[in-house]
Amino acid sequence: VDKFSIEAVDLGQVYKIKIRHDNSLAGADWYLDQVEVVDVETEEVYMFLCERWLSTKKEDKRIERTFFVK
C-alpha cells in the first residue's frame, strides 16, 4: 500500500481522477487497485475503484487511465 499526501487548493467536489506514469524505468508496470481521496477539512472521502494495470505490456497496454468516483 502506497500513501501520498498532497497539499492543494480546494478542489471542490471530486468526480474523476487521471492517473499515469512515465514508463521510464525497467519494471515500471504497476497494478492500481483503488484510489482514495480525502478532504482533510471536511473529512469527505472519494473512492475510485481501478483494478487495472498501468503497463505497456499488460491488458490494453495503457499507462494513463481516468477513473470516476464510485
Offer a quick outline of the entry.
This protein is mainly beta and 70 residues long.
Secondary structure elements and pairings:
Elements: E1 16-20, E2 30-38, E3 45-54, E4 64-68
Antiparallel strand pairs: 1-4, 2-3
Query: What radius of gyration results from the CA coordinates?
Result: 13 Å
What is the number of helices? 0
Quaternary organisation: single chain
Helix content: under 10%
Major β-sheet strand ordering: 1-4
CA(first)-CA(last) distance: 20 Å
Overall SS class: mainly beta
Can you give the mean pLDDT?
89
List the defining traits of the structure above.
70 residues; mainly beta; two-stranded antiparallel ribbon; two-stranded antiparallel sheet; 0% helix; 41% strand; elongated
Describe this structure in words.
- By secondary structure, the protein is mainly β.
- It contains no helices and four strands.
- The chain has a domain at 26-68.
- The chain has strands spanning 16-20, 30-38, 45-54, 64-68.
- The strands form two sheets. Strands 1-4 form a two-stranded antiparallel ribbon. The protein has a two-stranded antiparallel sheet with strand order 2-3.
- It comes from Cirrhinus mrigala (Mrigala).
- This is PLAT domain-containing protein.
- InterPro entries: Inner_ear_hair_cell_LOXHD, PLAT/LH2_dom, PLAT/LH2_dom_sf.
- Residues 1-68 form the PLAT domain.
